[in-house]
Each structure stands twice: as structure tokens, then as C-alpha cells.
Amino acid sequence: MSDTDTQAASGLNPVAGSDDGPDQAPLRGLARHRPVVVNPATSVRETLLLLAQAQADAAVVVDETSGLPLGLITLREMLFVIGIEGGGLEAPVAAYMIGAPLTITADAPAHRAKVMMAKKGVAHLLLTDQDGRLAGLIGQTDLLGLRAGGAEALVAAINAARDVTAMTEAADRVHRRAAELFESGMGVEALCQWLSGLNDLIAMRIIELIEDEFDLPAVPWCWMVFGSEGRLEQTFSTDQDNGLIFVPPDSERTDAIRAAFLPFCQAVNDALHLCGFERCRGQIMAGNPEWCLSADEWRARFDGWLRIPEPEALLHGTIFFDFRPLYGHCEPVDRLRAWLIDQAPRHNRFFQALATQTLETAPPLGWAGQFTYDRNRDFPHTLDLKTQGARLFTDCARLWALRHGLWATNTADRLRAVGQAQQRGGGDTAAEVEAFHLVQRFRIQQQLNTKDPDGANRVDPDDLNELHRLMLKEALKQAKRLQLRLRQEYAL
């Protein structure tokens, strides 16, 4: 599969402007400078002069007639050619350019570009419009993230893996390094996105390795992720939530194509399990025929949830609204997202049902502000900071993001975007985001402290010092305020 097939997005515009958070904002808004553009006949000397004037480190070679990008030339490459290889200053720059450079559509999210650059080991990505014309140039300095925390060696180990055993070792190294970063004080948002980005690379490499073992149908397809992975919020205790979308040439062939994909999907699920990504207890995995669907079937599934919001179906299906593409042809997934954010705001009954479900779980605080407990026999006197903590923020943010037709899937990004859409004060939004990340920090600390997966998200307040108990209470009070806003909005 080509590089553009693997990571390119469609030319759809997720959101006008930059309402999304920094990791899911459209790349178009992150390109800080107009790229230096030269034609193939431009001399090396003139190109160097243009780069010096613009204080840039790369130029794009563009065909004058069509306006399509032909290649990329970097300052480092030209200095090597001149200083080491004895290249001439009057030679045309096309003689030394990198032909067919990696491209990504300008409206793809930033996280997708981060993963692509890390996977391919490149320093620049060309941004293109729907018609293939140059829209900008992104460099590593524009996309900080996966280069931090010693990730380069981990990325190299992932890309060098040739079998599942090697992938298992690479995944273990990633998790051990993430734990070190957390203990050294790395911020929760940065850590989760760092970990999610490397987990993306692990999953992509696994899919690559297994793809070679199967004769897959020659149709566009994409591996999708949901839940915490879709939200870029993976922590140290996570399971698989994934599916497959494919585009059959005609509806009559859908079942046959699904049957051909299922053994491949099941093999990927098995390999991910061996690498530490536990199988989903609810069987929300691509290897399940229920979640290996054509583009039309996925749209029909979401349409059913919107039109007939039955409580049980909503409870089961909310994590699907956090979907994003991981590997393959991203365009069908992006088109599904564009359809969803257009259609969802029209279904008031859906949002009324979703709000009712969201408010069924309250923060574990009593009327006087003391902690309350759920009488769990295995873990008495503990708070479930996933169900009664992080999920309170996640569910509210998801509902409002869908209501306002926002592209983001990450909870913090959604809260920021919703704050702008509702014209709320920046301080209020910042407090909500900070509270969410504080709950996440307590969850992560517990996950690192216990080996019992059933207790990975359960915290006994008595194990916290007085300051941390107070901080946790304040974070849960923020969740209570979010729910109060939702209750008032829907008169519940």
C-alpha cells in the first residue's frame, strides 16, 4: 500500500477556522509561513538565496503549468551536494530534489501528520488541496510531540520490527518509557497523546505485517479506532475498540468482501492482544462481523442510532462516535465523519436521550461534598475514576461536540471547541480541561501502582494525602458543574 493510501485524508474540511484543539486542528492553520516555491529550472544558487531570504530550510519544486508539486529540496541536502559531492551552483534544482515527497491534505488533523512523519522518518510534509495543488509545507517544528521523550529510538524499533515477537518487545519499551515520563512529571495531555501516537504506530506496523500474509480484496478499506484510542486518550490500562470500513464496487458483493476481510481482521486483533492491547470484552473489534462493515452499512448504523435512540443501543454505541481512521484509505472514514457532523445536530430526540443517559451517572460526591462509594465488594471504599470520573467529562464533551457539529474526538479538544462555540469564558473552559486531566492523572497513577486490571481505575481516597483528596474533590465538582449545565439545557 502506498504512503498516501496509508495516511492521506480526503480533502474534506473538518471545521471552518480552528475550533478544534491543537492535536486535531486542521493542518492548514498550523503552517506558519508560506513555503518557498521554485520551478524545476531554478538554479541551486537562486534557490539558496530564496531560502536565506525567507529563513527557511526547505523549498517546494512546483510545475509552473499545472501548479502541482513535483519535489522537495532541503537546505541540508543542497549543502551536502555542494560541499561533499561537488555539485554546481548553476545546476537546476530539479537535479537534486526529492521526487514524489510525502503529501497529506491540508484539512487532515495534526495528529495524523505527526504519526505519518514519525513513521516515515521525514522532517517535512507537503500540504495539498483537493485538486492536488500545493497548500503549504509542514515541518517538525510545527508539529512538536512525537519527537519528545526519547521517542525517536522507539519509533525506529517499531518500524524495524519484522514479526509480532519484535512488536511485543517494542510495545513493552513504549509503555515502560511512558511510565518514566509520567513519573518525571510530563503533563497528562501531552503524555496521553504521546502514548496514543506511538500506540498508533505499533498498531499500524502490526497491520502492515499481517496485511502481507493475506490476499485482501482490491477495494478501498480503512482500519478504524474508537473509544479512548479514537479520542487519543489511551492510558496504561486499555483494550481494543476497532472496526473496519470498506467500499465495495456494488452492494451485492458486500457480504463476500466482508468474509474475505474477517480472517485478516481477526489475525490483527490476535496480534494486538499479544502486544498488550487486550481484546474488547464487548467484542467491539474488526474481527467481529458486526463491526466489519461497508461504508453504506456504517452510515446506516449511525443513522439508526440517531433516528431511534434506544437507551441500550446508545449505552453500547457511544464510543463509536469517537471514531477516527488509523490505517488504509482515510477518505471513507473522513466522509463518514463529515456526514455525521452534518446530520447529528438535526436529531433533537437523539440528544435528549443521550443527555438522559449521560446524567444517569453522577460524580461520587455527597450533598456535603464528601466522597460516596458504590458498594463494590471486590474494591470497597474506592472510587471508579473511569466510570464516575473521566467518563463524566468525556460524555458531556461528546454530546456537545456532536450537537455543534465539531470534528474533534479528543475530550479536551472538544471542551475547548465547545467553549468557543458556546462563547463561554476561557477561564471556565480551562478549569474543565484541567479537572479532566487531573482525574486522568489519578487514574494513571493507580494503573501504575496495581497489577490487578479490575482495580486499575479504582482509587481509595484514604490512600491520597490531604492535598490530593482536596484536588480530586474539586475536579469532581467541575464534573458536577458540567452535568448541571447539561441538565439545565435539556430540562432534566
UniProtKB/TrEMBL annotation:
UniProt biased composition (Polar residues): 1-10
Residues forming coiled coils: 465-492
UniProt keyword Coiled coil, yes or no: yes
Record's keyword annotation contains Repeat: yes
Every CBS domain range: 31-89, 97-154
SUPFAM superfamilies: CBS-domain pair
Pfam families documented for this protein: CBS (PF00571), DUF294 (PF03445), DUF294_C (PF10335)
Region (Disordered): 1-27
Record keywords: CBS domain, Coiled coil, Repeat
Official protein name in the record: DUF294 nucleotidyltransferase-like domain-containing protein
InterPro entries the UniProt entry points to: CBS_dom, CBS_dom_sf, CBS_domain-containing, DUF294_put_nucleoTrafse_sb-bd, GlnD_Uridyltrans_N
